[in-house]
Amino acid sequence: MNSKKYNNLISGLVVMVLGVAYYIQSFSIRVTRVGGDYNSRMFPQLIAIVFIVMGLLLALRNVRSLFERPTVQDQPDTGAVAAKISFWALHKKVIIIFLISFAYVGLMMVFGYLIATPIFMFCFMLILTPKTLNHRFVFNIVLSLASSFLFYVMFRYGFTMILPKGIF
Questions:
Q1: With CB atoms 3.0 to 4.6 Å apart as the test, which of 12, 42, 52, 164 could cross-link to 59 if both were Cys?
Q2: Which residue range forms the structural domain that includes residue 93?
Q3: Where is the DUF1468 domain (predicted)?
C-alpha cells in the first residue's frame, strides 16, 4: 500500500472531523444578537460548515483519483535530483507561515488588532509572493494597511464586534 496515495483522503477526513467538532463546540457560545437574524454562533458555524465541505471535496477528489489510470506524468521521479531535496527545502514556507501565525497571536495580545494585523499580512505577503514580484514592497504595505483597516471597520461597525485592543 502506497501511503502517499491516501494523503489527501486522510487529510480530507481529518478536516471534516475537525469541522464537525468545531460545529458542535459552537453551540457552547453564548447567543447574543448582532443585528437582524445574525447571532454570535453564526460565523463559527459557517466556518465549520466550510471546513466540512472542503474536507469532503478533498476526500472525494482523492477517491476519484484512485480509480483513474495513472499517466506517464504521474509516475514518480526516481532520479538523483528528487533524492537531494531536503525537508527544509520542501516545507520552508509552511514552517515560516506557521511561526509567523504564532507570532501574530502573541502580537495581537500585546499590540492589538490594528498594529499586529498589518505586520502579519505584510510578512505573509512577503512569504507567498513569487520572487518575480518581491520588489512590490510599497504595494504590499498599502494593501496590508488598507485591508486591515477595512476588516476592522467591517467587524467593528458592520458586525458590531470588538476586536482585540492589546495593552495600549
A1: 12
A2: 86-168
A3: 10-164
